[in-house]
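Bench notes, afternoon.
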Amino acid sequence: MPKPVGSLVVKWRKLAEEGYLYAEIARMNPEYTVDQVRHYCLGHTGQKLDGPIQRVDRWYGSNVWLRGENSPHSQLTATDAQRVLDDWDDKGGKWKSSGAAWARELRVSPSTIYMLRRGETWQHLKHPNQGRKTKKRRKNSR
């Protein structure tokens, strides 16, 4: 990985100060990784360079630079995640389509859909259907 020049680091730090995510800054400079941008913005590297150094807890314990579509690991778009979560049937108390059906349609693994529905991923959406469980049917006692 190439080492960025001081003026570029200062530019990154100013962008981060304005609220840009490290992943967004890295996309503007594809020859550098998100980790490089983060290290320089936090002052772990290039501490003597000018520009505002970010606080480690600037996101209050949540790595928003890895949230949703900004994550380099994201397999879904925000629109797709919203569509999956909107698929709840209030009347029936269950999901309208199976997780496997959504996985086939969106070309992801079923676990990606199930983690989304359980609220393990895409938590920042704060969607009311995340974490919902299908109502269990009672067996008739004889």
